[in-house]
Structures are given as structure tokens and as C-alpha cells.
Amino acid sequence: MDFEGIYRKSGRTLLMKNLISIFSKGEDPDLSEDGEFSEITIITSVLKQYFRELPEAVIPPDTYSKLTELISNDDGEYLNIEEIKKCINTLEASHYSTLKYIVSHLIKVSQLSDVNLMTIKNLAVVFGPTLIGSNEICPEVDFSSTGIKVKIISVILENADTIFT
């Protein structure tokens, strides 16, 4: 987790494809320091791609819409974290558990931001569009919603202790 740009830098494409192929076959790849996939950027790139390609996002469109309303209605002084928590609690169990786990991991990554340069904001920029699904068919419209997705993930990361208890 102390690798500079751990989630910002991309892994080598061929090795990423090989790793995905191994996972797709249900096999266990060698992720040891001496293994073929020892570069951290290969693993982090595959993880991001996995979340991007899920048939349904970790935070599905209906939850995204509710969170957007809660965060967009913020007057800048006070976010109702309890309402955000209630919204997150409506996720299906698999989505909730996955979100809780990845948020816990990202918080640990952010705690080493002096070395890896991955602050909560930087992690939210990477994972907002990756974890949050939308109903947008048009890529231009979906791209314009990136800012609110970043804000949502930032708020979740900053308030994880309250949201996931």
C-alpha cells in the first residue's frame, strides 16, 4: 500500500489479461513478490476493471439516485450522515458487504497518502465512477455525473465509521 499512485497508475495490459484469464478459469494465480504478477499495478488495475465490469455496480443506479439527492441537497454546512447511512443500509447484502470491505481497504490506503499520494479525494476520483452505476446510456451524460460520484465516495470514505456501524 506504500506504492506511489497505487490505484492511479495502470498495470501492463498483457499481464492484466493473463491475470484475468487465470481468475476466469477459477485458478489461483501466483501473486507472490517473486511471481509473474508481482507488480502491484497489475493487481490494482485488474481490481478496478473487475468493479467496472460487474453486471450491476456495487452502488446500483437506484441507490446512486438517492445518494445524489442527499448530497446535492447539502447546503455546504451539514450533511445528514444518518440519512446516507440509511440509504447505504438498503443495499443488497452482497453489495453492502463489498462496499464495506473496499471502503475499509481504501481508508487503509489513504492512511499512507504521504507515501502513495492516494488521499481520500484521489481515491474517490478513481473509485467513484468504478463503484457507482448510473442509468445513463449516453457516455457524455455519464461523464458529467463523475463529480457527484466522486463526492459520494468521498463522503462515504470520510464517514465510514458512522455509515458502517
TrEMBL record:
Q: Which Gene3D superfamilies match?
A: Rho GTPase activation protein
Keyword Acyltransferase carried by entry: no
Domain named Rho-GAP is located at 1-164
Q: Give GO MF terms, alphabetically.
A: GTPase activator activity
A single GO BP: signal transduction
Q: Does the keyword RNA-binding apply?
A: no
Q: Got a GO cellular component term for this one?
A: cytoplasm
Keyword terms of this UniProt record:
GTPase activation
Question: Pfam families, alphabetically?
Answer: RhoGAP
PANTHER family registered for this protein in UniProt: RHO GTPASE ACTIVATING PROTEIN AT 16F, ISOFORM E-RELATED, RHO/RAC/CDC GTPASE-ACTIVATING PROTEIN
Name of the protein this chain belongs to:
Rho GTPase activation protein
List the top taxonomic levels of the source: Eukaryota, Fungi, Fungi incertae sedis, Chytridiomycota, Chytridiomycota incertae sedis
